[in-house]
Amino acid sequence: MNRLSPFNIVSLTLGFAFLYIPMLILVIYSFNGGRLVTVWSGFSTKWYGELFQNEAFLDAALVTLKVAVISSTIAAVLGTMAAYVLVRGGRFLGRTLFSGMIYAPLVMPEVITGLSLLLLFIGIGLDRGVLTIVLAHTTFAMCYVSVVVSSRLVTFDRSLEEAALDLGATPFETFRLVTLPIIAPAVISGWLLAFTLSLDDLVIASFTSGPSSTTLPIKIYSAVRLGVSPEINALSTIMIGIVAVGVITASLVSKQQLIRAKRDEQEAARTE
Amino acid sequence: MLRRWFLIAVPYVWLLALFLVPFLIVFKISLSDAAIARPPYLPVFSWGDSIIDFIRELDFENFIFLTEDDLYWKAYLSSLQIALIATILTLLVGYPVAYAMARAPEHWRPTLMMLVILPFWTSFLIRVYSWMGILSTEGFLNQFLLWVGVISSPLQILNTDTAVYIGIVYTYLPFMILPIYATLDRLDGSLIEAAEDLGCSRASAFWLVTLPLSRPGIIAGCFLVFIPTIGEFVIPSLLGGSDTLMIGKVLWEEFFSNRDWPVASAVAVVLLLILIIPIVLFQRNQQKQAEADR
After folding, report:
1. Interface pTM (ipTM) of the complex?
2. What pLDDT sits at residue B55?
3. Distance (Å, rounded) from C-alpha B289 to C-alpha B51?
4. For residue A32, what are the domain limits?
């Protein structure tokens, strides 16, 4: 099927133009000198300067990063445990409920998750702040992590674990020395997913944050509700840049690993 | 043995405490009365009450209120309608892209895949926001159309339902492209060749072979767009107008502006009941797919 018809080329071009032009405009106009965001009035980086002067944004960025690092790390641990239970746990009481609770948050509207967690925190008298956002983000992020990790665990060759156990490793050693290294890429991509979801979240954070713990998305939302602003364009450009560099690096690294794995395989085949 | 229980118990208890229990609380509060207090609702029952007391004091006032005020059922209906139309539009945009990706030379595909996934990693809020500068009356789209001469005065696009559709198609496009691409990529090319050898034109081979075989991907993509769109808040709030009715926005306003927590909870409960149907259908489709792959 390797024939691209003119129609295919047009749909690829239009499709990717549609996906990328809005962000491109955002990036270009973040270097616009004027306050009017839709009229070009010369190249300038002054909005970046203003952004780094704006302490409210910097504080919010710090809170957001803190929440994202803590919640995605806890979520990676809990999500990996949950995936292990789902794939290897066998039968136990309430297994259906457990897997339901793993998959339900993935499709739950954020407004419902946010509302329900807020009502819980108020019910138990927990003051809203960084802790409550971390708890909320960990809960939905662990479900994403466990989906990513369990898809890796399903395709995993169990005989490797059995061999380790036969050779006298304890179950914990087997997990640490055999299972973990194999599922590590999935755990890392789960962590990354959890991290970006946390950085990105507006709705759940709005419900669960207190006045002293405003996150960046909340700050951005309240700024852009009134219209387009050049500082937000600059901020968006920085965020888009970080993601682009991250994703491209990750895909290059994984490509390199794939090539190395292929070479090792060929090498192994030759020595046999 | 102890270790196994520990492994099961930790994520289990976490999810029970922070997912299931909060839900039960929403359900409980949806059955209570609003009050001007902190928290702004009267408890239906305190923790010590018996089940019988709970049932006796139960009232469905908030749910009856939802049926009486036509704002709510209109918002539910219009959310469903917007989600449905947006899903069809996303399919129409996404299918040709997925199809072309599957036909692209092998060595292009990883790059094309990455280009589809990349926006997914970028902030959702920023992607929605990027359209505000394009669609506003002085925005780039209007400037462009005026310059071309298609229109003589700027169109009002931002703060209308059209802008909401554009926003949904834009942000959810990767969710549509990826599952369709996955099924098309696995499609056996010789089937199409066989159809063409047997006298099918390219178009009819597409209609008779490719399209039916890519149905699982289409269904998965449509659900992945339709389900989250129903409860969407950010898109209608930033791109929609004051007359754009979507239930996620109504719930948000009920909670943050009106501070009527019991009604907000009732709105959430009904939204959940509506969502159960597509979620169950989606799960069934995925299970069937997984079994077919085996």
Report:
1. 0.86
2. 57
3. 43
4. 20-53
